[in-house]
Amino acid sequence: MDSGKRPAAPPQHPEFTPPGQLPGQHPGDGNGLRWTVLLLGVVLLGLLVVFVLPGLVDRQAAGPLPPAPADAVQGHVSAPVDASDDARAVAEQSLQAYLELRARLELDNVSAWGEPQWGRSAALADDGDRQFSQRRFRPAADAYGEALGLLQALAGGMEQRFETAMAEGVQALDADDSDTAIGRFQLALAIREDAAALQGLERARRRPDVLGFMRLGEQAQGSGDLAAARTAFTQAVELDSEYPPAAAALQRVSTRLADIGYRDAMTRALAALDSGRLTEAGRALQQASGYKPDDVAVRDAQRRLAAARQQSRLAGLRRQADERVHAEDWQGAVSVYRQALKVDPNTGFATDGLALAQTRARLHEQIDHYLGKPSRLYSDEPLANAGQLLEAAAGAPGDEPVLAGKIARLRRLVTEAATPLPVSLRSDGETEVVIYHVGRLGQFDSHSMQLRPGDYTVVGSRRGYRDVRKTLSVRPGKPGPVLVIRCEEPV
Question: How far apart are alpha carbons 154 and 114 in whole angstroms?
């Protein structure tokens, strides 16, 4: 039935009083006027339905549904059984309300979700058209009213239909009935656009592939290929992360694989620990911890590994320290012992070795102080300190050749620094000669004496002449020096 047109009513029977006839006027009087008025009314109604109604529907599409005649909503029209003008008016009002609501529902895509009520309402409207064309206005009004009631029920039940379709779609999806689920979600989407319905439709369309991966995973699991089973279940979860059986199967297989991997890793770790292969044990324990990070056995093995690594580290440092001691590299030994004490502050070899190494390092440093610059020994105080140092080092063990050599060289230097050497001075018999820190020599032409190695300041003075100042250097192993000192420049 066309929603925009309805057949015009046939001419009114002569026994009815047409609109516009004055009371008491004979039906035959003004017959042309009567038919003209009726014809104009039908044409205007048709024009209203065809041209005005669509615009009205468009303007009111977002607004509330128009009120229907009260008796039309009840599915019947209170009209006389004859074809009176009142019955016709009621039928026309019911028809107009029906057409307006039908237009509204067509905008809501009712044909996709409103069956069978939608088809039934159209059939009733068609019946109303036939009744109306036969001038049976009361049956026409009843038919139009019933058709309108069906449309109103459709309009009022849209939300319930949507909720029902969604619930049935979810139920079908839970039962792996993808075809039914697709139909239900499509019906819900036909009623309105909805994210949950769209998601349900996509899940329903993917469900056959999900089930296919589930079958592959179960077959692989049955044959003992847990890795292939995990791959299949993972693909099922990636297709539908909200499918509980896939998530449960993946968790189950992953747990079994983790148990197997954990046992294998722990077996390798313990075997490597027992044989001292600490690097291999560390890698295996790292794998085991990846499977079960909080496992008690893993933590115990990690503590064993840490202790073994500590002992291995200390053993290596002890070897290094022994090498430094053997080479009499006492500063190097001090550094190694300190590293060992950082690893374990209570390790005995490092505590004892550090004390000895520091003592030996200080002794070498003190001896090197004089060996590096022997002229320091030419002063009384440094010479005395060097003598005391030799006395303290006299008890050095003989298995330290480097220290023994240094002690021997220092002893020789001390002996040389303490042994006077002959020196000769020449003057003019008139110059007064003085050697600082030695004494006044007076006037002489030549003078011989013995002085310890060192540098001496010799000053000559004479009345009427400028003083002369010279340095006398006395060195072990060199010929005795001869110094000429006299005042020759008058003032």
Answer: 7
- CA separation, residue 232 to residues 209, 246, 260 (Å): 11, 9, 19
Residues 102 and 3: their CA atoms lie apart, in Å, by 7
Quick: pLDDT tens for 351-409: 999 998 998 899 899 999 999 999 899 888 999 999 888 888 876 676 788 888 888 89
For 265, other C-beta atoms within 10 Å of its C-beta total 22
User: CA-CA distance, 185 to 173, in Å (whole number)?
Assistant: 10
Q: Provide the phi-psi class of 76: left if phi over 0, else alpha when psi is between -120 and 50, else beta.
A: beta
- pLDDT (tens digit per residue) in 204-242: 999 999 999 999 999 999 999 999 999 999 999 999 999
Indicate the SS3 state at residue 430. coil
Supply the DSSP symbol for 449. Answer: E
Query: Where does residue 387 fall: left (phi above 0), alpha (psi -120 to 50 degrees), or beta otherwise?
Result: alpha
The span from the CA of 291 to the CA of 293, in Å, is: 6
Q: Concatenate the DSSP letters of all residues of 305-357 into one string.
A: HHHHHHHHHHHHHHHHHHHHHHTT-HHHHHHHHHHHHHH-TT-HHHHHHHHHH
The answer to whether 325 touches 357, Cβ cutoff 8 Å, is yes
Collapsing DSSP to helix, strand or coil, 439 comes out as strand
Answering whether pTM is above 0.70, one says no
Of 183, 123, 127, 120, give the one whose Cα is nearest residue 154. 120
Residues 215, 174: Cα–Cα separation, whole Å: 17
Q: How far apart are CA 211 and CA 214, in angstroms?
A: 5
Complete DSSP assignment for 330-344: HHHHHHHHHHHHHH-
Residues 467, 469, 474, CA angle at the centre, nearest 5°? Answer: 150
Residue 340 burial (C-beta neighbours within 10 Å; 0-12, 13-18, 19+): buried
According to DSSP, the residues that pair with 433 across neighbouring strands are 442, 460
Helices 330-343 & 348-371 angle (0-180, nearest 10): 160
Is 156 buried (19+), middle (13-18) or exposed (0-12) by CB count in 10 A? exposed
Q: List domains and CATH numbers for the chain.
A: 31-156 (no CATH), 164-270 (1.25.40), 326-418 (no CATH), 421-484 (2.60.40.1120)
Q: In a 10 Å sphere around its CB, with 0-12 CB exposed, 13-18 middle and 19+ buried, how is residue 441 labelled?
A: middle
Total count of residues recorded for the chain: 491
Identity at 484, one-letter amino acid code: V
Contacts of residue 308, Cβ cutoff 8 Å, sequence gap at least 6: 273, 276, 278, 281
Adjacent-strand bridge partners of 432: 461
